[in-house]
Amino acid sequence: MLSRLIYHSENISGGLEGKMMGDLNKIMDASVRNNQRDGITGALLFDPIWFVQILEGEREAISATLRRIMPDPRHDAVTVMDCAPIESRLFGNWWMGLANMNVHSALLARHGLGPRLDPRKMSGAVTLALAVDVARAGLNRQVAAAA
Ligand SMILES: Cc1cc2nc3c(=O)[nH]c(=O)nc-3n(C[C@H](O)[C@H](O)[C@H](O)COP(=O)(O)O)c2cc1C
Fold first, then answer.
1. Which of 12, 29, 32, 134 has minimal Cβ neighbours within 10 Å of its Cβ?
2. What pTM was estimated for this model as a whole?
3. Best probe residue, ligand 1, of 20, 31, 143 (max atoms within 8 Å of C-beta)
4. CATH class, range 2-137
């Protein structure tokens, strides 16, 4: 069954900018490689404090991916925000698309959020609508040097 899962977690490497960029590029390399194999698409929103990730795919594949992601020491306190069957993918062009939320305060404001990302205060529906707008503005494959 095609499904979509949304979770947030605490970004452990966020305090050290250089380390965060290195960590993110490694996460993206593994994500693109594995998600392509497993038919998973989605988006990974980050700032120095939070991760918010959307995973789309077959329910069993999402579950197996989440079991790998959860114990990853680069984040903590993985909290599922929503999981439901879907008719079609919203992030079908992305094995995993990356977005630095520090540059998207205008989009946060448009969804009644901000100025900083705080997924604890966000519903799954608002998170999804925000992520779709972020994707429209452009997702990345790697974290840019300026992130
Ligand atoms: C916030 C975050 C998001 C991640 N997203 C994915 C993902 O979408 N797919 C994936 O395979 N691994 C993801 N990872 C990496 C996994 O935790 C794990 O390191 C990786 O799947 C191991 O892959 P490997 O066995 O091929 O080395 C993520 C890690 C973090 C911290």
1. 29
2. 0.95
3. 31
4. alpha beta
- List the structure tokens of 46: 């980050």
> Given ligand 1 and candidates 8, 11, 34, which is best to mutate, with the most ligand atoms within 8 Å of its CB?
34
- Please check the confidence at residue 146 and state whether its pLDDT lies above 50: no
Report whether residue 31 contacts ligand 1, using a CB cutoff of 6 Å: yes
Backbone CA torsion sign across 26, 73, 144, 108? positive
pLDDT digits (tens, 9 = 90+) for 11-47: 998 766 778 888 999 999 999 999 999 999 999 999 9
With a pLDDT cut of 90, the percent of the chain lying above it is 85
Distance CA 31, CA 143 (A): 13
3-class DSSP state of 33: helix
Domain boundaries, the chain: 2-137
